[in-house]
């Protein structure tokens, strides 16, 4: 008989799960792209804004500030006129490159399967919805 004196609790609570806390850092779609922009070293704000297609200046600013607060990105200001601002990954930020690279690779290999599954699901559920409407 199993002892219930010390039951093992699952680590799936949003407040307690370390994984969910990590997702808070990287789950924004722009965060991953900003980190990818810095994977080869320092990059100026303007260059980052040009290479990340679709990001607004406001969203880029919010994203790099959040990553800076989280200790993932560091900002370096060169006192020129106008000031040159460069961003780079901190040593902590660099530790995200491998797992994020693996996620990117997974997406390249498997996302077509996800799209096919979505299409199949939508077709099946559309048929089910139409059958219910006729009933």
Automatic annotation (TrEMBL):
Membrane spanning stretches: none
GO molecular function: DNA binding
Domain annotation HTH hxlR-type: ranges: 17-115
The keyword Transcription is assigned to this record: yes
InterPro entries named among the record's database cross-references: HTH_HxlR, WH-like_DNA-bd_sf, WH_DNA-bd_sf
Keywords: DNA-binding, Transcription, Transcription regulation
Domain of life: Bacteria
Protein name, entry field: Transcriptional regulator
Organism of origin: Brevibacillus reuszeri
């Amino acid at each position: 008989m199993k002892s219930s004196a010390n039951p093992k609790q699952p680590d799936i609570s949003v407040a307690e799960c370390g994984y969910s806390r990590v997702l808070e850092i990287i789950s924004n779609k722009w965060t991953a792209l900003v980190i990818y922009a810095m994977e080869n070293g320092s990059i100026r704000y303007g260059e980052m804004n040009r290479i990340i297609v679709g990001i607004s200046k406001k969203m880029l600013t919010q994203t790099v500030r959040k990553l800076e607060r989280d200790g993932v990105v560091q900002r370096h200001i060169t006192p020129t006129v106008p000031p040159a601002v460069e961003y780079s990954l901190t040593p902590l930020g660099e530790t995200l490159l491998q797992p994020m690279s693996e996620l990117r690779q997974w997406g390249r290999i498997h996302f077509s399967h996800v799209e096919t599954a979505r299409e199949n699901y939508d077709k099946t559920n559309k048929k089910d919805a139409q059958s219910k409407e006729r009933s």
